[in-house]
Design a protein that fits this description.
single chain
């Protein structure tokens, strides 16, 4: 049984349930743009690393490891996940004590700096073992940023929403992952086309990382235009903020952190087949498909992912979060085996069908996540709760999903061996969905104490 006693009285957070005045609607639009644009840029930075690492970093930074070079390059993408909990703890404290906006500014800046430095980093051929060490350190800084960014953006969006619209508002920061993927593919494709494969592989891979400087400036400007979350403002005015958010979270809602994390492990493990570089690396190496063709299918799959993220979020506003999760994870579980069979055939059309159909349940189970997490924790410790749950879920589900997939493929001699692993992760999330309490129709003020 979870305790719900708090050291101080919880603030009553009142948000309008009917049509909002013009000023509030204008602010909501700003929040949509700020969370969508900023999160897209954040994930562009994070995902361009995964894509370039899958294609080139094995040779550029880990060539001395021979047949293990590719596996190690994929592992560097995963090591950042272990710094997400630290980022979540720091951002959760800052967000619950000082506001959601400060988290957005700090995390985007840290991600931009670390990404730019990757683009400036000498390779192993130039500085020896220092190169892979510095590369891993910069990837860890990206993980620190990613662990803190999502919670701030998601809660800023959800806490500005009217009752019955939290899923929809919360879907916009969720779209940042597939949109970041599309942006990464577009930028990489453009530089690859302009420079040619030989030049891109030699030095042009640095340009997508350096391009991050421009994007971060744009993102910081957009985020500077939004107001603080009305929920946090209410807490501040009523002096009901938690003094030690993490301690209060773990003592009163610790099991909810694990439950929330379990709802996302199936999604993030399968999703990292697309955004983590595994699918790109596998089909371009094992079946020699043109890189541009595979990137085109990944771009299309990301677009499908965006559409079903919104559909899943809006559906969850109408029918409840658990309903959408149960349907989405059941669909994912059933489709994984035929999808990986299609990947194993290595045809362009088969790869496209596999990726496009994978994006449908990914979107359905990703869209409602912001609202679901927000509804699981009281406002005074909400950012700490959702950030930590997201970080734990990311570690358990996605940290080494591409590396595990690569190891299974090598060990069994077929990519189909990856499907049972992902089906197991989907099953964990599906079972957890049956233990969720739906609060999608409740107003914010009834969530003062959960």
């Amino acid at each position: 049984m979870e305790a719900n006693q708090t050291a101080e009285p919880e603030a009553s957070v009142a948000l309008a349930t009917g049509p909002a005045p013009g000023g509030e609607e204008k602010q909501r639009r700003r929040v949509v743009y700020a969370t969508l644009v900023g999160t897209t840029i954040e994930w562009y930075d994070f995902l361009v690393y995964a894509q370039v690492a899958a294609l080139l970093f094995g040779d550029l930074f880990f060539s001395g490891l021979g047949q293990w070079s590719q596996l190690t390059a994929l592992a560097t993408a995963g090591v950042s996940f272990f710094f997400r909990p630290l980022g979540a703890l720091v951002s959760g404290y800052l967000g619950d004590r000082f506001g959601r906006r400060i988290v957005l500014v700090l995390t985007l800046g840290l991600m931009g700096v670390s990404t730019t430095l990757v683009g400036l980093l000498p390779t192993t051929a130039a500085i020896g073992i220092a190169a892979p060490i510095l590369l891993i350190l910069l990837r860890c800084l990206q993980g620190l940023s990613a662990g803190g960014e999502w919670g701030g953006a998601a809660m800023l969006a959800v806490e500005h929403a009217r009752t019955g619209h939290r899923g929809r508002m919360g879907s916009f920061p969720q779209m940042g992952v597939p949109l970041g993927m599309m942006l990464a593919i577009t930028v990489m494709g453009a530089f690859n086309a302009l420079l040619g494969k030989e030049a891109f592989d030699a030095w042009g891979w640095r340009l997508p990382f350096l391009f991050s400087v421009v994007l971060v400036v744009v993102g910081q400007y957009v985020r500077s235009q939004v107001a603080e979350s009305p929920v946090f403002t209410e807490l501040e005015e009523s002096k009901a903020k938690a003094k030690t958010p993490l301690r209060e979270l773990l003592s009163t809602h610790g099991t909810k952190v694990l439950k929330a994390a379990a709802t996302m492990v199936g999604n993030i493990a399968a999703g990292y087949m697309i955004v983590g570089g595994f699918a790109l690396a596998y089909v371009t190496s094992a079946h020699d498909l043109p890189r541009t063709q595979v990137l085109m299918w990944l771009f299309a799959a990301s677009a499908v992912w965006i559409a079903f993220t919104y559909i899943g979020a809006r559906w969850s506003d109408l029918s409840g979060r658990p309903v959408v999760y149960k349907f989405g994870y059941s669909m994912l579980f059933v489709l994984l085996l035929p999808q990986f069979w299609l990947l194993s055939q290595g045809t362009g059309l088969g790869v496209g069908v596999a990726l496009l159909t994978l994006a449908v349940p990914l979107g359905l189970t990703y869209g409602p996540q912001s609202a679901l997490f927000a509804e699981m924790f009281p406002a005074r410790i909400r950012l700490s709760g959702v950030s930590l749950a997201y970080a734990v879920g990311a570690v358990l589900g996605g940290a080494f999903a591409p590396m595990i997939a690569e190891a299974l493929t090598q060990g069994f001699g077929t990519v189909i061996a990856v499907a049972p692993y992902l089906m197991g992760m989907a099953l964990i999330s599906l079972v957890t969905a049956f233990f969720l309490t739906d609060r999608s129709a409740e107003p914010q003020e009834s969530m003062a104490e959960l």
